[in-house]
Amino acid sequence: MDTTTGRVEHEWDHVLTGVLEGRTPVPDPNEVADYTWQDPDVLRQRMTAGPHEFTPWLADVLRLATHHR
């Protein structure tokens, strides 16, 4: 549930993981306006320090994405 609006969404989040060594991702600018490349532990720290800066569902998706690493 979104703690700000009280709304509940029922959706599927597709989580893809991989290892990228020695390369920089280059997303298609027609599909991606901006991105950051962050270590999952750093992202967790940022989410704890400023949860209002992130979408409410990111914590669950991050947990799923890092479960098997």
Please give the structural blueprint.
Layout: H1 40-49, H2 58-66
What does this structure look like?
The structure is a single chain. With 69 residues, the chain is mostly helical. It has one domain (1-69). It has 2 helices and no strands. The chain is globular and about 40 Å long. The model has no long low-confidence stretch (mean pLDDT 85).
Could you give a quick summary of the protein structure above?
The longest helix has 10 residues, at 40-49. The protein is built from two helices and no strands.
Count of spatially separate domains: 1
Number of helices: 2
Distance from first to last alpha carbon = 27 Å
**Main sheet overview:** none
Order of helices and strands: HH
Ranges where pLDDT stays below 50 over 5 or more residues in a row are: none
Radius of gyration: 14 Å
How much beta, percentage-wise? under 5%
The structure class reads mainly alpha
Shape: globular
Indicate the mean pLDDT. Answer: 85
| Beta strand count | 0
Give the helix level as a range of percent: 25-40%
InterPro entries: NUDIX_hydrolase-like_dom_sf
List keywords for this structure.
mainly alpha, 69 residues, globular, 0% strand
